[in-house]
């Protein structure tokens, strides 16, 4: 097992944003985490990456307890992430942003630069290498986040709404990129509200609602699960919407 979370709870005061959530991730998985806004997806995700301290529960990476490890230590072990709101270093170039990731494993500037250029090539951003990061729009920033994470040479990559704010064409390109990353041997956890992305990419899906896991299974299983549809819409609305496919209910397919 690559990554395991056991009974994670994260409380903010008396409010439990995540309540006793567990998950296991095997090499080669693309695990999708879905759920309505405020369900606790990002909070759970941040407990996996170490950006938030868990209130209780354990996180294991390749069998090792990393619950008290900083995000940097987890990155060294091979756990990389992107942020829902891109954390771009505005004053730096695109290349320099990616080099920050590469410096995790390369102390020499020239080596880090070579690695960063190779990653930019891979994500299709080579011609933007010397552009200031601040000149990028949302799609560029989202892709740059993925590039910086890839430059750390991860075993597991966690993407938090990496496709939010993209148009249909850009989403398709991003799906292709994630497929390419997966083919290269990287295991993925994707938090995504775009159902089509989950349907096309995820091998398994876990559904959150009010901090708790309410369903897990294949993308088709969870999207046809009445409890999941009810969580997205509220029970009454789900009844009113009977006759629509689950994907339509959850935001519609990408056309
Ligand atoms: P999701 O990513 O599924 O939309 P989040 O994990 O961001 O949900 O948030 C889950 C719940 O926890 C929300 O109700 C949110 O307002 C709350 N929450 C998230 N972060 C904090 C925080 N730092 N302090 C207090 N409440 C928070
Ligand atoms: Mg979120």
From TrEMBL:
**What does the UniProt keyword field contain?**
ATP-binding, Nucleotide-binding, Transport
Any one Gene Ontology MF annotation carried by this entry is: L-valine transmembrane transporter activity
Q: Which residues cross the membrane?
A: none
SMART domains referenced in this protein's UniProt entry, alphabetically: AAA
The cross-references to Pfam families, in alphabetical order and at most eight, read: ABC_tran, BCA_ABC_TP_C
Q: Which cellular components does GO assign to this protein?
A: plasma membrane
Please report the stretch or stretches of sequence annotated as the ABC transporter domain.
Answer: 3-235
Q: Does the keyword Nucleotide-binding apply?
A: yes
The answer on whether this UniProt entry bears the keyword Nucleotide-binding reads yes
Q: Which GO terms describe its biological process?
A: D-alanine transmembrane transport; L-alanine transport; L-isoleucine import across plasma membrane; L-valine import across plasma membrane
Where does the record locate the signal sequence feature?
none
| SUPFAM superfamilies, per database record | P-loop containing nucleoside triphosphate hydrolases
Q: What does this protein do?
A: Involved in beta-(1-->2)glucan export. Transmembrane domains (TMD) form a pore in the inner membrane and the ATP-binding domain (NBD) is responsible for energy generation.
- Name under which the protein is recorded: ABC transporter ATP-binding protein
What species is this protein from?
Bradyrhizobium centrolobii
